[in-house]
Write a structure and sequence with these properties.
- By secondary structure, the protein is mostly helical.
- It has one domain (8-131).
- Helix content is 92%, strand content 0%.
- It contains 3 helices and no strands.
- It has helices spanning 2-106, 111-118, 122-131.
- α1 packs antiparallel against α2 (111-118).
- The N and C termini lie far apart (155 Å).
- The chain crosses the membrane at residues 6-29.
């Protein structure tokens, strides 16, 4: 019996070592499968995110283009309004100068003084004087 007892412990230890090795090997295989699944899910998620990002990027580009066209249209309208206002102001200023020059002509103010005060040329003042109401 001593002979069988002496073999019992080494056999038990060998069996225990084999069981631990099998457990470790099984855990490594499970870990690899889990890693592969995680990689597959990660790739799928990345592909999904990539397509969504591409779609959102296209939508943003469309919105930016629409905004740029809208802004350009508003700028053009504003420029037209500014030009209209400028033309109106020039016309009003011209009308005011003409009225002032006409009044100075009626008051028999010398041409040089009228030209200095209104900024109109002497020829323009002579033309206005020719058409002044009597």
């Amino acid at each position: 019996m001593t002979g069988s007892v002496s073999l019992f412990f080494p056999l038990m230890i060998s069996a225990l070592v084999l069981a631990v090795l099998a457990l470790v090997f099984g855990m490594m295989l499970s870990w690899r499968k889990l890693q592969e699944r995680a990689d597959t899910h990660t790739r799928a998620l990345m592909d999904s995110m990539d397509s969504r990002l591409t779609r959102h990027n296209a939508q943003l580009e469309t919105l930016l283009e629409q905004h740029a066209r809208s802004r350009q249209s508003a700028e053009e309208q504003m420029n037209q309004n500014v030009e209209t206002i400028r033309a109106d102001l020039e016309w009003l200023a011209g009308e005011k100068m003409i009225e002032e020059a006409m009044q100075l002509v009626r008051d028999n103010t010398p041409l040089t003084q009228i030209s200095q005060e209104t900024g109109l040329s002497k020829d323009t003042i002579r033309t206005l004087a020719a058409f002044r109401p009597h």
